[in-house]
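Lab notebook, page 48
Experiment: co-folding of the full assembly
Goal: obtain a model of how the components sit together before planning crosslinking
Operator: M.T.
Materials (sequences as entered):
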Amino acid sequence: MTLRGWTLPQTATGRSAIVAPPPWHYSGEIIAVDFTASPEAAAALLPSGMVPVPEGTASVVFADWCSASDHDPRVLADPAVGQYREAYVVLHVIRGDKKVGRVPFIWVDSELSLLRGQIQGFPKKLGQIAMTRPVDIGRGGVRRQTGSTFSAHATSHGRRVLTASVTLDGSSDRLPRAATLPLVHTRLFPAIDRPEPAVHELQLGAIANFECGTVHTGSATLALGATEYEEIEALGPVSVGRGYVFSMAFSVTGGKVEPA
Amino acid sequence: MTLRGWTLPQTATGRSAIVAPPPWHYSGEIIAVDFTASPEAAAALLPSGMVPVPEGTASVVFADWCSASDHDPRVLADPAVGQYREAYVVLHVIRGDKKVGRVPFIWVDSELSLLRGQIQGFPKKLGQIAMTRPVDIGRGGVRRQTGSTFSAHATSHGRRVLTASVTLDGSSDRLPRAATLPLVHTRLFPAIDRPEPAVHELQLGAIANFECGTVHTGSATLALGATEYEEIEALGPVSVGRGYVFSMAFSVTGGKVEPA
Amino acid sequence: MTLRGWTLPQTATGRSAIVAPPPWHYSGEIIAVDFTASPEAAAALLPSGMVPVPEGTASVVFADWCSASDHDPRVLADPAVGQYREAYVVLHVIRGDKKVGRVPFIWVDSELSLLRGQIQGFPKKLGQIAMTRPVDIGRGGVRRQTGSTFSAHATSHGRRVLTASVTLDGSSDRLPRAATLPLVHTRLFPAIDRPEPAVHELQLGAIANFECGTVHTGSATLALGATEYEEIEALGPVSVGRGYVFSMAFSVTGGKVEPA
Amino acid sequence: MTLRGWTLPQTATGRSAIVAPPPWHYSGEIIAVDFTASPEAAAALLPSGMVPVPEGTASVVFADWCSASDHDPRVLADPAVGQYREAYVVLHVIRGDKKVGRVPFIWVDSELSLLRGQIQGFPKKLGQIAMTRPVDIGRGGVRRQTGSTFSAHATSHGRRVLTASVTLDGSSDRLPRAATLPLVHTRLFPAIDRPEPAVHELQLGAIANFECGTVHTGSATLALGATEYEEIEALGPVSVGRGYVFSMAFSVTGGKVEPA
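Observation: model returned without errors.
Model output:
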């Protein structure tokens, strides 16, 4: 019979597929840290046609997401499916005459997000992500206020790859670069019967409904760690910049592709 | 040498111990559902000296906690250690001439909380807990507002033991019972060289700094599930009551013990 | 620069990619149970061109794998990467004039295997898999001998989807169908800029070096469970057949594709 | 009513308790590495009455266990409950006029083993443990034969604490020290209403039915890692000794206690 499903597994109903097609909606809590990366190490992570910005800036972003899917109400309804955490590096990059963002490494603690990400060209791996979430009452947590320290870390393959903190000292009218640079991804799906990939193309997400809450800023710390399976530690950091704590939301309505 | 540590592992510094002594502080987001339990099943979970309230009421509570420890700053600082989720049943109980709460089953996704709980007499097991967390912007999640549905579930031993939802329709001036009944626990630690336990006593936590945010209320659903390792499904529910979504905070400064 | 990597993430060295191309090698311990499936439910899981065998037979297979990759020595060297467990259903199917196997549902506890499987067309999801492993000494486990019971179960989305056991009563000269039917998969990778998939084709793995140890057989039990995210429980089982416990090994050297 | 259960949770039937009393039976696959520890660091982990052996030897042990419990058949029957992995350090110690073993740090991936261990005085924490398991057929894994490398590692709090390997070059008639030194533990359970512990005593397990398979030996590597929550890295290693791969089985029938 005709099987349905945007991804595997396909069935007669389509309701077993892991991922439904966009639109997808995201509302998240962000902890981000700017840093300067080794220019050589950054360049070694970029496809042809992209070069690091001269100032060598980059960002690490931790996100605690709630997500929804127009074609699958279970994503919003089931917190075990729609909610997840991820951590990634964004290199600030020149492509043609534009500044864009490029994500060479990203870890996520969700199957849905792993595969939804791979479809968009996010190079997602599974990892364990921890992030301070603020509290409004009591002494068990930290508030979104001056002097509070927000911590975040990510582990991949049993080794710490990212450890960051932001100690709030004010707020900002400007959005951090990590939130505003359009991301250019590489969609890559291998063939099984020949060496050339079945899919290899650049992808620029179609973003809508962007919203951002108050951007709390502060001094930051950042450490990058090594594993046998990633090449993040070569990026440095050469120096650590400002940190940011804020809420962010947007929708992905699809994407545009170009030859890789 | 003299080793230090309130719990194992003990070392010369004491900083490897899993749990530091109270005071402990908690700030959490709660999803709770009242229900009526089978009176026989509830009675079969109570120690002598406690009987179910005549109306047979009970509650299921899901909590997403941030926690802190006066003697271990790492708990507040490291979100992977201080933050965790748990789910439990509270039977509403008569003990002597007082209404108290009794927790026959509780699951938690944190090592620290598992052992900190066992020390207090919470019968904690490891489980996987999911809870809707509200968002303030965007379409990726649900708001704390009328019409929103908050979902929560808990899995133990690969089987769903609790599945609940609350669809908000208002707020309340009164705190839910699940938040106000003082809990009476049984501290139990076996001996290894004789059949009688080494520790077997009732424990009433010393609670301070209690705070509660707005109590959002709504209609609720609740299903209890069976595993080979728990006896929760016999409780019913006979009927499902109201649901609650609120923030709660308190401190545990120690406890009082009585013979079991 | 030119980035390398058979899958994402691509880097200058290629060593961050999750999956390296075949050949891949597998050595595993298998617990399998034959059953008869509801013919309608089985048909609803098959693509056009495949129909259930008239006798309606199917198998559930649990596998505890060690795996290796000719182009990535880390897979063999690191037990956290190369070793994993999976569980799947194989429908026995007629395609043209041949009996083949079709896997409508499969769960695995490994990122590498999840993505390596999706590339081959295995509809892999993450799950938690438990399997009795035999012991040779002591009283802590069961032996591979008459009277021993081997148990296995799989959990997806916090719910038990497969629960099986085999109580050994002999051995067999014949390999179980689940080990010998060639599998026909569907490779499916969505496009992001149009509704039609970017890749949608049938895939038949190129298998080499097949080996099988002694096939221990026995009476079996099997239960299929429901989740909100799978459609396995409709398969029944209508009746449960024999069970099998054995070692199996093979290599995947690539694959052949056909239009879907 | 009278509640039953050797540990929490107690119920009328007793079948919800996490741990049933001994006898407990263990059959396991072991990867062990001898090393020389910093004498000062080792001494800082020992209670009064114990000193490191003059030669400063110690061992790291990884174990993949199957376990059973005479009073709870579910432990043997359910691989998700009875099977688990752990990793620990054994310091070789003089106590009075005897050589004994002392375990300052141990990580385990099982709730049952965590609590069963705490009752015996093993200072168990949760961790992620990976170990090469040998295969008998195929090319997906390694054999128990000369030239094969067995790898093992343990992660605690998202950081690698133990990384070891053994490359087999022969076998031995003698059991490794890690398998033969009687272990002296500290049972420690805090009071909640006073600073002094409720239970604080030394414990020597009553061991029966000890069995050991062929002891494969080889050259070894070992690295100890740091976390914010353990103090293992100070042990060194000063030098790394031989490695061992073998099967081991025994029963715990109870224990003897002495004042701490």
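Interpretation: The helical segments of chain C are 39-43, 73-77, 79-82, 111-120, 177-180.
Next step: discuss with group before ordering constructs.
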